[in-house]
Structure prediction request, 298 residues.
Amino acid sequence: MNRADLESMAQREQQRQAAFRCRILCCASTPCLSSGGTAVFDAVNKAVTEHKLDAEVQAVATGCMGPCSRGPMVTVQEQGKPDVIYQQVTPETARVIVAQQAGAQAEAQQSSPNLPALQDEPVLGEHVLPADAPFFAKQQKVVLANSGLIDPEKLEDYVARGGYMALGYALREMTPEEVCKEIIVSGLRGRGGAGFPTGLKWDMVRREGADKKYVIANGDEGDPGAYMDRTLMESDPHRVLEGMAIAGYAVGADQGFVYVRGEYPIAAKRLERAIRAAERRGLLGSRVLDSGFNFRVD
Prediction:
């Protein structure tokens, strides 16, 4: 695969998603799964099939949507309308959400008499999380920009949102020294507490004359209550891999390792699947993106 192939993949996936009138995003991160997220996703899929909506409604299992204590979370993206975020969703609520998309108000009300009647507005009550809720009001996600919006186990979802484009640009348009300088200028710093300038660290390794160099991603995060690494690895594993590959190119490494703590089995599983998918498409391994750069991740 080269950059042109990557751009074609992105366009195909964007067009495929645009063909759906509605996308129902179901959180499949650890907190939501532990509170019944799997049953909710299954209920959405079953209801979509029962209402014969497969051609216009897409159900997607995503990563973390944010307010974990309110899970399971579901986001409805309908063309021409603002997103609607549902909290503490049950299989029953999920069926009502899909029924609304089918226009089956009477059926939905009959099957769920305790829920409000369905009109043109979304299901109301305690299940709707206000768009102006304080948790969301001033957020501007950067590292977690894709979290809750893509299927973390589907490479095409990541590529459709610009995934691996930065790696392709770096490999074709920049030297390793230029990549390091770009990271220095960006002001990117370590998030582990010391705040060490990332570009400076990369450049120090680049100038080191070692025969073998490695890129290590530490996903242990032993600090109590710190789940930023788990959230990223579960929700957007290809972002981790692309960042590691860019770092590898910048410093002259051809091998990367991700350390995942044992309490994060979902993160480990999704990273393993992402690595295999990236290798199959030539985004990791030998001659990455049809270049002279080799980079393997374990």
